[in-house]
Design a protein that fits this description.
Among the domains are: 143 residues, no CATH class; 184 residues, no CATH class. It is mainly alpha-helical. Helix content is 42%, strand content 7%. The longest helix is centred in the middle third of the chain and has 57 residues.
């Protein structure tokens, strides 16, 4: 280390100490005496140690840790010369004996090398600090990025014909995160051996060199194992010491907290609470806690304890709510069972979770802990369930009516009703279209099970999930949008001869009329034809044409032709649901319904329990309810949230009457005489 630069001395003269005065002024100048820095030691204070007798040095060095000897050897050239000489081995050995359990120095290492390996934090390759990676087979200490090793075992054998026993190898992972183990060699050792081997000329020299090298490799095996075991034990001992200090600090903090009135909270802490406290940065330090240190961290610890207390109280409330909700569930389930078989309308009414949020039931569930709440208390509210469900339904009706834009109200000549055929909605989260009232009340996106800021509502949702019931209704502004296809739907309804201001959705679903679009370009067939549409597929057709034409709205003029009753009946006879291959039992892809988006999978529900699936529950009804011949809408039904997925029909085509038009037997089509001549 270079000597410290000397500073010039500052000498104060008598003139600067005296007080200078002038006429008419009382100014006073004070001299500042030179100050000295308080240093813990003076440079050169160890220089006289080298003049001490060897027995005194032995006593001094023998009481030092090997790490201290290493640092001392790096202070000056004189100390380095003294401690690196062969005569200093006794000093190093005496210092080594200060380390409990440290194995003897291997014969192939000097005492300073041994101390540097174990107690210096510098990398043996790049001299970076904090080198914590030991490769005992090579007796090196390195940082991982500077460790020069290669998988050269095959290369060495190919070039020299000598097996692995000729050089040291380390079995290590191929990469940092790999489970594949590879025998590596230390590159510096490999290069040295290769150079020495090439310098040998005769076979006798090579044999002698190989025997010496093999003996050296064997001599390294046991010391490497011993040192690895010692280092492991040392780390474990050190870890135990640190854990002891951390535990002592934690105990001191708990003692301070008990004095300040937190004894009850400490007693009721569970494992998670204790872990939060132990993991706090001010608690996990391996340092003893002093009074001043406690004062510096007290605010943080008290704030954490307040959070732990609030979390514990919330857990106690959740447990109390859960117990009472179970009692309520028994009463509501018994009432629903008394109503008979479940239908699709059962899923559109207020569910158990919705009732739990309404005042009569919530008042009971959320009563103070010291209030006794029994099953009879909920039984007393059983007769109020129909009224509560009616109130809930009207509240949702008013809520959803507000989603209809003013433009729609102005276009309608009659009072708006959610049951009108052109009134539909779209989910902003899953983009499911054509949601209808009251089926929209069963849509899963509007009954989310994820975190709710209200703790009571969150517990109700959690309880509902545990008993396989829908979560509470949480339809928020923006989650449900009024359908933008309302103008198209009104025009299609009018084309079928119905009044869109009074015709309901159910009336249109029962309407047997079918029509074709004369403005269509036809099917890519060799003969002209048109697809027959019911009112819903006609709306989809207009939207598809608008998308193809890149129009912002719909086509201004669609020439519709309504088929006569007999032709419509023939079309209806050929119609069948357009089921996805994954749901068609006659298709090789049957059973792979998981490939379909959730919103396009039909959902079937059991009428006798709450079982549901994406396929008809025939087997379930037979095995679980002993029903020999299960029937749809009697023993199981389609969930209203997925009802629209089964309303889509495979296309049926209409050909004009003519002797050149021949319909293939396996093609769903009819020949219609009512189509105006020349219209196609």
């Amino acid at each position: 280390m270079p000597p410290r630069r000397k500073k010039a001395k500052v000498v104060a003269s008598d003139a600067t100490i005296e007080v200078a005065t002038s006429s008419g002024a009382n100014a006073e100048t004070k001299a500042r005496a030179p100050t000295r820095r308080n240093l813990r030691g003076r440079r050169g204070s160890l220089k006289d140690m080298l003049n001490m007798p060897l027995d005194v040095l032995y006593e001094i060095f023998g009481r030092m840790h090997p790490r201290d000897l290493l640092n001392l050897a790096r202070t000056s050239k004189d100390f380095r010369m003294l401690l690196m000489s062969r005569d200093s081995a006794l000093f190093w050995k005496a210092a080594r004996e200060q380390v409990p359990g440290l194995p003897e120095c291997p014969a192939f290492l000097s005492e300073p090398q041994y101390a540097n390996l174990l107690f210096s934090s510098f990398c043996n390759n790049c001299l970076k600090k904090n080198a914590q990676m030991f490769v005992w087979e090579f007796f090196v200490r390195v940082v991982r990025e500077a460790f020069d090793m290669r998988d050269l075992t095959a290369d060495i054998q190919e070039n020299t014909g000598i097996k692995e026993s000729f050089y040291s190898t380390a079995l290590m992972p191929r990469t940092k995160h790999s489970y594949s183990m590879v025998h590596y060699v230390h590159t510096p050792e490999y290069e040295k051996l290769k150079t020495q081997w090439k310098a040998l000329e005769t076979a006798e020299e090579k044999i002698s060199f190989a025997k010496t090298q093999v003996a050296l490799v064997k001599a390294r095996i046991e010391p490497a194992k011993t040192l690895a075991s010692w280092k492991t034990n040392e780390l474990q001992t050190r870890s135990s010491e640190l854990d002891g200090l951390k535990q002592e600090r934690l105990d001191s903090i708990l003692a301070h907290l008990r004095k300040e009135g937190w004894a009850e909270d400490i007693k009721k802490m569970d494992y998670t609470d204790g872990l939060d406290l132990r993991s706090h940065k001010a608690v996990r330090k391996p340092q003893k806690l002093t009074d001043s240190a406690w004062e510096s961290i007290r605010g943080e610890i008290v704030a954490l304890m307040e959070e732990i207390r609030e979390a514990r109280l919330q857990r106690e409330r959740d447990a109390l709510w859960s117990t009472r909700l179970e009692l309520m569930c028994q009463v509501v389930s018994a009432y629903d069972t008394s109503l008979g078989r479940r239908t699709a309308m059962s899923d559109t009414q207020a569910q158990f979770a919705d009732l739990a949020l309404m005042p009569p039931f919530r008042t009971l569930v959320d009563a103070p802990p010291d209030t006794s709440v029994t099953a009879q208390d909920f039984e007393n509210l059983r007769d109020s369930i129909p009224t509560l469900r009616a109130e809930w339904l009207e509240a949702r009706r008013a809520e959803i009516l507000e989603l209809i834009p003013q433009e729609v109200a102005q276009a309608s000549k009659a009072e708006l009703s959610l049951s009108l055929a052109f009134v539909g909605f779209e989910c902003a989260m899953c983009s499911l279209e054509n949601l209808r009232w009251p089926n929209v009340l069963a849509h899963s996106c509007l009954r989310p099970k994820y975190s709710n800021p209200d703790a009571y509502k969150q517990q109700v949702a959690k309880m509902s999930s545990m008993i396989s019931m829908p979560a509470p209704w949480r339809g928020k502004a923006g989650d449900l949008l009024f359908s933008e296809r309302w103008k198209i739907t009104r025009s299609v309804i009018s084309a079928l001869g119905k009044d869109p201001d009074t015709t309901t959705y159910e009336e249109m679903m029962q309407h047997q009329a079918r029509m074709i679009c004369l403005s269509d370009d036809g099917d890519p067939m060799e003969v002209d034809c048109r697809q027959a549409h019911d009112w819903k597929s006609a709306v989809v057709h207009v939207l598809a044409v608008a998308e193809e034409d890149s129009l912002p709205g719909h086509r201004a003029k669609h020439r519709w032709h309504v088929l006569d009753a007999s032709e419509a009946a023939r079309v209806i006879a050929l119609e069948e649901p357009d089921i996805a291959p994954e749901l068609d039992p006659n298709n090789i892809f049957f059973g792979l319904e998981g490939l379909l988006p959730v919103t396009t999978r039909p959902k079937y529900c059991c009428s006798h329990c709450r079982q549901s699936a994406t396929r008809p529950l025939i087997d379930h009804c037979i095995t679980a309810h002993a029903i020999k011949d299960p029937r749809i809408d009697e023993d199981f039904y389609v969930h209203p949230d997925r009802r629209g997925t089964l309303d889509i029909m495979k296309p049926v085509y209409v050909y004009p009457d003519g002797e050149d038009n021949v319909v293939e037997p396996d093609f769903r089509a009819i020949v219609a005489k009512s189509i105006p001549e020349g219209s196609i």
